[in-house]
Amino acid sequence: MKISLFPTLKNYKKEYFGKDLTAGIMIAAVSIPISMGYAEVSGLPAVFGLYGSVLPILFFALFSTSLQFIFGVDAAPAAIAGAALASLGIESGSADALRYIPVISLFVGLWLLLFYFLKAGKLVTFISTPVMGGFISGIALTIILMQIPKIMGGKSGSGELPELLKHLYETALHINWVSVGLGIGALAILIISKKVMPKFPMAVVIMALGMVSTLVFHVDHYGVALLSKVEPGLPKFIIPSVFHVDLKHAAGRGLMIAVVVMAETLLSENNFASKNGYKIDDNKEILACAAGNIISAFTGSCPVNGSISRTSMNEQFGGKTQAVSITAAISMVMVLLFAAGFIGYLPVPVLTAIVISALMNVVEWHLAVRLFKVSRKEFYIFVAACMAVLFLGTIYGVIIGIILSFVAVVIRETNPTRAFLGGIPGRDGFYDLDKNHYAHPIEHTMIYRFNANLFFANSKLFQEDIENNLKEDTKTVIVDAGTITSIDITAADTILMLKQNLEKKGIAFYITEHMQALNTQFRNLEMGGLIEEGCIRRTITAALLDSGLQKPFPLEGIPANLQESLEELREHAGKLPVHKHNTEKIEKLKKALWLHTLPAEEENTLEEFAWAFGEDTVNEIEKRVHRVIANLHHWPEIKEISEKGLSKQMQAWHNLGAIDEDEVLRRMELHLDELSANLEEDKNKQLIFQMIEKRRHHLEIELKQENPEIWEKLVESREHLERRLQKQNPEAAEKLHELEKKLLI
């Protein structure tokens, strides 16, 4: 397995240098307060956040294939590590914490190294976006609640939501208002600056102002806590104390953090890569994360992770390669060597405000809102993952999050979309009976489509769907298996049992439309008899013919002679000579068709619109009509509206089909009164009406000459539409008919 070092620096271009240098310095500056804050969250002294921003970043850049992603001390791993200390009763910043946290970092790196050799990157796809978003949001909210007491002049909280709220209440009884003023003021400035100046590194300015408040106004004399002083110097190498901690506990927490690091980093990296047009190697990214955490352990620091917030900043400043990470690491070395003395003047509430500000971006409010709008089921999964972290802790939150991801997959696979199919008079093919009002079941036949692979968890649903929908006159059951690519032994047994049950009732059973590979599975699962008995047919049509039916297949509620006539009309209408006998025959057939189908008022006749918008078709077409009318208001002279110009106004939906456009035009006529406010009443209304009718007439003539079959559909569609419009808006329809009589007589 070939591994190249610093892969993003190959073929480096000199024009990248300026942006990489600027982005690296800015990221280092912002990382100072954020990393120090997260180090304290993990249970280490703040300076270890700076240590975790030197070698771990370099070792990540050594292997990473991502052009932009920034590594370092981050929220989720710090929170899990801090929670691990709290569960053991280890005090933050104590000697025990200094021994325990590096061991967790070591195990995180070792687990990630194992994931690399197992090529486990694809496992991340099993953690859904709602679960990961809810989990990360829960962690961020937990840390925010842990940090708020420090703004109030107290110590950070620990535990889950009830304990955190209790600690908040107790801290509020001894609140330091100077500390609150500094913290709230800093937080307000940071929030406002993100909206007003999103690219400006306000956190660095706030940190500098905080130090000034100590040097000039001596806020520490008013009880405001300051960070511990940091001795200048680079991090020292240590050997993690693996023999002085509970290895089982440390390994377990390390596994949890490793899963979070792998999932969050890969998901985020792929998002940035996709957005910016490049590709990454998922497995090498796991190796890069492993290297970063192992070296973090040997510098005594906490687990490290990819940082979404710092990567976003890198993107804003135009960083092109991992040279940004190298610059950031070198800048941090300069800080540790020459500017460490200033850190001891930073007020704790100011640093806490910077951390909370960063964490507010981590809480995925936008995802929660989006899920609430588009998928309530996934929204509830998001909330469940978030609540699990808040009430049960990060460890159980990880477990519950992963379980929820698999539950979501199982629910989707065990309750797939299914449909019963039928035919439409005069048309080929088979259509969903629920979604096509003109579709009718084929006589004595059930055609069932199952849109998922068959396995132990959904095979009973498959069987029950068929058996519960049998009719007394059912003679044939046909399964459309076009989307079934695999079955397991449980499903195989279910199919054989179903066939036997149907045979006892004298019902023939067929499986059709599937790929050839499924037949191999049938034979391997000892179902080859189905093939030999002729139960496996290539198409639905072949199964229908085998069952004794003939084309055109008889439909329930449609007389056989009408079916035959419709088939003849469909095939030969375009070729029939135009004379009275044929015209009468066509009109008679159309009338018979309307008498034997479902009410036209409920039918979506628009071709492309009905396919695209489904149940919202009527609303969408009305929106289109109002948009065209609104555009007509902007024409300087109503006389300039030509048939061509009117048609051009309607092309927002790419190119409307003829039937689509005809319905849009007819519905426009119903809304002509809406133009009255801006146009001269009768004269202009009549002019627009004439233009619309001219366009409709042009469509009819054009289709009649070039495509008689579509012309027939247009004629049918117009008559159906008139009945629908009469039912939907009888008053407007009546006015329209009066206008027609006035202008067309």
UniProtKB/TrEMBL annotation:
<feature type="transmembrane region" description="Helical">
    <location>
        <begin position="130"/>
        <end position="152"/>
    </location>
</feature>
<dbReference type="InterPro" id="IPR036513">
    <property type="entry name" value="STAS_dom_sf"/>
</dbReference>
<keyword id="KW-0812">Transmembrane</keyword>
<feature type="transmembrane region" description="Helical">
    <location>
        <begin position="21"/>
        <end position="38"/>
    </location>
</feature>
<feature type="transmembrane region" description="Helical">
    <location>
        <begin position="350"/>
        <end position="367"/>
    </location>
</feature>
<feature type="transmembrane region" description="Helical">
    <location>
        <begin position="172"/>
        <end position="193"/>
    </location>
</feature>
<keyword id="KW-0472">Membrane</keyword>
<dbReference type="Pfam" id="PF00916">
    <property type="entry name" value="Sulfate_transp"/>
</dbReference>
<feature type="transmembrane region" description="Helical">
    <location>
        <begin position="44"/>
        <end position="62"/>
    </location>
</feature>
<dbReference type="InterPro" id="IPR001902">
    <property type="entry name" value="SLC26A/SulP_fam"/>
</dbReference>
<feature type="transmembrane region" description="Helical">
    <location>
        <begin position="250"/>
        <end position="267"/>
    </location>
</feature>
<feature type="transmembrane region" description="Helical">
    <location>
        <begin position="69"/>
        <end position="88"/>
    </location>
</feature>
<feature type="transmembrane region" description="Helical">
    <location>
        <begin position="100"/>
        <end position="118"/>
    </location>
</feature>
<feature type="transmembrane region" description="Helical">
    <location>
        <begin position="379"/>
        <end position="411"/>
    </location>
</feature>
<feature type="domain" description="STAS">
    <location>
        <begin position="435"/>
        <end position="569"/>
    </location>
</feature>
<protein>
    <submittedName>
        <fullName>STAS domain-containing protein</fullName>
    </submittedName>
</protein>
<keyword id="KW-1133">Transmembrane helix</keyword>
<feature type="transmembrane region" description="Helical">
    <location>
        <begin position="200"/>
        <end position="219"/>
    </location>
</feature>
<dbReference type="InterPro" id="IPR002645">
    <property type="entry name" value="STAS_dom"/>
</dbReference>
<dbReference type="Pfam" id="PF01740">
    <property type="entry name" value="STAS"/>
</dbReference>
<feature type="transmembrane region" description="Helical">
    <location>
        <begin position="323"/>
        <end position="344"/>
    </location>
</feature>
<dbReference type="InterPro" id="IPR011547">
    <property type="entry name" value="SLC26A/SulP_dom"/>
</dbReference>
